[in-house]
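step: validate -> pass
step: tokenize input -> pass
step: predict -> running
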Amino acid sequence: MTGKRLDPWGKGGIENYENLFKEFGIESFDKYRQRFSNNRYIRRGIVIGQRDYGRIAEAIEKKKPYAMMTGLMPSGKFHFGHKMVADQIIWYQKMNADTFVCAADLEATVVRDIPLQEARKIAIEEYLTNYVALGLTEKNLTFWFQTDYVVPYYRFRDQLSKKVTLNELKGIYGDDLTTGKIFSAITQAADILHPQLAEFGGPRPTVVPVGADQDPHIRLTRDFSGRFVSRHAADAASSEYKFIPPSSTYHKFMSGLSGGKMSSSDPSSYIALTEDPKTAEKKVMSAKTGGRATVTEQKELGGVPEDCMVYEMLVYHLVESDKELAEIYAGCKSGGRVCGECKKYCAGLLTAFLKEHQKKRKDAAKTVEKILGER
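step: predict -> pass
step: emit ->
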């Protein structure tokens, strides 16, 4: 984050999440934590912010129609940082959302220089297959590629280009816009809004769970949603669309194994869900912790679990029980638990998870074929 601008295509992390509330008008998620405590990321404060989530909360609790839309960037291995989004997709699907998942093969090509066919292969073999192994089903699911979809989507995307100026885009994204980025931003707005077109179910609340750096796309799309109000009877392109501004949630990022940002371009910073379990175990055993320089200091002063990548892995993915997690935290802070003990415990849980998950990946093929066949 630089100054008062977020870069959804940048490589930098977010140092101060509190600034999101002050500078960009994102609201805290705290008031929803108890209501949706069956979601681990909400319960533990990993989902930290929201825009207009009240609409979604009402739809979930009153069993009204709503949609969940998210995209995947097929740029490399599917790792535990990506799993956090997948788990949220699956949670919303279980909470009866019409579920829309977009493979951003166009953005991967025009912004990240990944060949189109390679991007599509990554989307299927890394992302969609892992989603299914984690629990995604074909129920109420629409999956598509940005470059291979249906006419109403493309017609709508192209009409969006009339609803924004270059200066407005620069105000949101900065001066270093390229033609590819502009095209990608407008396409993402079409991705988010199109579930409300008549062909896809009509206007209804839609939630987009994203990392906080993606808020520029949300703000642009919310602006678009209010610009399809007909001023003239002859303006058919405007009068045929009625949108509810999309809601959004914002989650914290997982840190890389050595601290700093987890990056798909740096295999040492993450553990992939297809990782060999022994390799994954070695990565955990060498990961950055919040421990002291010596065991003696650790026992005297206690550790710093807030700065421990191993503890973070337990919080985000491997320990479901809040009580157990609190005991691990207290043991670290008091000095009663040393880093080697935590690493071995985490490695054991991780190995068991990966072995089970990789079996499920093998069984996911038929469901993946069904999903792709229904496109």
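step: describe -> The domain at 267-362 is CATH 1.10.240.10 (Tyrosyl-Transfer RNA Synthetase).
step: cleanup -> pass
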